[in-house]
Specification:
The chain has helices at residues 10-13, 16-28, 40-49, 65-88, 138-146, 169-180, 215-221, 229-241, and strands spanning 2-8, 32-37, 56-57, 60-61, 94-97, 105-109, 113-116, 122-125, 131-136, 150-153, 156-158, 164-166, 185-192, 210-211, 246-251, 262-264. The chain has 265 residues and is an alpha/beta fold. It has a single domain, classed as Acetylglutamate kinase-like (Carbamate kinase, 3-Layer(aba) Sandwich).
Amino acid sequence: MKITVVKVGGGIVEDEKSLSALLDKFARIEGLKVLVHGGGRSATKVAEQLGIQQTMIGGRRITDAETLKVVTMVYAGLVNKNIVAQLQARDVNALGLTGADMNVIVSHRRPIKQVKMEDGTVQPVDYGFVGDVDKVNADLLADLIAKGVVPVVSPIGHDGKGNLLNTNADTIASQVAIALAQHFEVTLMFCFEKRGVLRDPEDDNSVIPQITASDFPRLVDEGIVSGGMLPKLENSFAAISAGVKEVVITQADQIDQKGEGTHLC
């Protein structure tokens, strides 16, 4: 049985018109489906309004204690419940989840890592209250889906010890897709404002139609893949190697046209 896991980024979810168009198309996807959302731009905006400084390294957010409060409020609250309400209005029986709900995603706090900085140096980075996924409860998700529920998953996990953890939404989508591959034939779609991975970020028509695992390091070295696109592709190839049938990076309004965008293999 086939299932589509769609991940939508913060640039879409914070724009009312774009989100509405995306949810129209998501509601029309035939068969089983799951929606995973981000909300990083909204979180950054709220943090700035509260005077909480934000730091990004390699496309990933440093999450101190105050930032964790903000991302939990924004991701698990405002963004998640807004999406759930709008899907219900489209006759989609959506259920909003964090990793803590029903113990669906268990993570551990990321240890300090050596990271290559923009200046080429390698330095230790403490990401703070950031989680790396240990386990996704695929059986529980499959049971919900079998009952006609469409999970809407926010990128907040937990460690099983009472602590919430911020997790990259692309990672959540990848790990959910990998887990569901035990039960379904999974297509994972990352959708955002652009039509796919662009060879030239200033040219929306420069979509790279296909990227292989061997192409990826070269595109990183050439600077074509950088910033927030790095974790997106890292998680895409991890998903493929772990049993996900297909990964597509595409524009939000193209999720019902699987021939569009960048296909990873």
